[in-house]
Amino acid sequence: MITKKLKLIFGISIPVFILHGIEEFVTHFSDKDAHAQAIFGMFSSLSNHGATFVVFQIMFWLLLIISLLLIMGGKWQLYTLGIAGIVYIYELHHVYKAIAIGGYYPGLYTSIAFPIIGFFFWKEWLAIKKQNI
């Protein structure tokens, strides 16, 4: 069962994700980051309309899959939330890149919040997992 505390931690992360996405957009993260270029570069040969359509379709499919996992309840809710927990850790790559280049890297400022959120998230997530073994 998902606790109110885990829901709150996840809820707090949503506006941080929004701010993070805005920071990445404003600082042209997608033009500078090798991961973003590798993932989204495959859409560069498509028209803007075509790329938007494909991305919409993929996001819709993911929404359907995640919705199914959430309505299945119990452990699937916990595991689905674990995806967000992985992203909290992955966002450390902004800090790593900033250290590697010795300066600001796009997305750095808001990414600093994710390890803090991730610490509390994983602490609660693991406590729930331990109780439900």
What report would you give on this structure?
The structure is a single chain. This protein has one domain. By secondary structure, the protein is an all-alpha fold. It has eight helices and no strands.
Summarize this, please?
The protein contains eight helices and no strands.
The total domain count is 1
Overall mean confidence score, pLDDT:
94
The tally of strands reads 0
Radius of gyration: 17 Å
Principal-axis shape: flat
Percent helix? over 70%
What string gives the helices and strands in order? Answer: HHHHHHHH
- Broad structural category: mainly alpha
Specify the biggest β-sheet: none
- The amount of beta strand, in percent, is under 5%
Total helical elements: 8
Uncertain regions spanning at least 5 consecutive residues: none
How far apart the termini lie comes to 12 Å
